[in-house]
């Protein structure tokens, strides 16, 4: 967040070097900045320390920045009659450092990216010691507007550092984009594999269902063979009738009124069609019982070997057949 100064200042060289480029050349990052009405610049210490590789901002400030070059956000803004900037990242107790404090942190940093900036600072000090002053070169293209401040060329060392840092950041952006593309490709491959696994599971389920149907047919055939073997020699087993089925059921269990009502409805169907595929709701309607009670009656008939389950129909209705002994 940059808050531009409300006063341009009378000095010709105020802002001779763009402060954003200056800080970028020093730290290699576009750190947040607050510019006060008097032209002073303040920076969040945590931003600067992070860009320079300091792991403990508090220790870095205590070791390298004197107290008169650091303060908290509320004090700095309050001294100029300003309010704390909006946003969760701008806390009242946020530690700030001024431009001189930032340069002190840069000079204490060991990152190779800070070397060009340090060399330029050393050149400035040497030039001042030798010649008594250090001046910036004026840019070839001067501002055309009347009263506009003069433009000055960025020092060569700092300009070269900015170019190298920008190229490095572009390379990092390209690497990040490549990483994102690889991640998307990997996600697509994973999705394709998941689809293949799902298809395999569906095929396995179809095989299992076919096996269940085959086993049911085998069980039916086995029951038929048992009946034929137990029938008297020289004659076939007598086909069951509704009356014989109901009579046999009466002998196997104590038939209550509810059970008998269900038995009277399903016995003719089992005898005529060989199986019952009627939904429970339909049986409940014909008997006047609840679906739950119909289900209990059918469970009781299965328990006493009157009928047996044979899976389910396509519409979800249970399938029952006579339990022949």
UniProtKB/TrEMBL annotation:
Keyword Zinc tagged: no
Transmembrane segments: none
Residue runs in coiled coils: 162-189
Source taxon at top rank: Bacteria
Sequence ranges assigned to domain Bro-N in this UniProt record: 16-132
A Pfam family reported for this protein in Swiss-Prot or TrEMBL: Bro-N
UniProt keyword annotations, A-Z: Coiled coil
Keyword Manganese among record annotations: no
SMART domains named among the record's database cross-references: Bro-N (SM01040)
Protein name per the record: Bro-N domain-containing protein
Record organism: Streptomyces fimbriatus
